[in-house]
Specification:
The chain has 90 residues and is mainly alpha-helical. The protein has a single domain (23-88), classed as Transcription Termination Factor Rho, Rna-binding Domain, Chain A, Domain 1. 64% of the residues lie in helices and 0% in strands. It is built from 4 helices and no strands. The protein is globular, with a radius of gyration of 16 Å.
Amino acid sequence: MTTDPTSPSAAIKSTDPLHGLTLAVLLERLVAVYGWEELARLVKIRCFSHDPSIKSSLTFLRRTPWARQEVEDLYVKWGHFAWQQTQTSN
């Protein structure tokens, strides 16, 4: 049985590196790759540099659109590729 590639049910692979990622997963990946100290250097927000935690950072990023955008932009530009490399080297 073959699937018609033009049918609406055909799987469409998104090229957007943020597709299907929650903010929590995105942040956990960035912390795993860069660590809090480097994240604080790359994105100048206090929740990354003063007693950082996933929970407090998520709260701030969800309430602060400009900060969330900076973190998402960092992930798209560098974090996505760095995460892929850590997964393929395992």
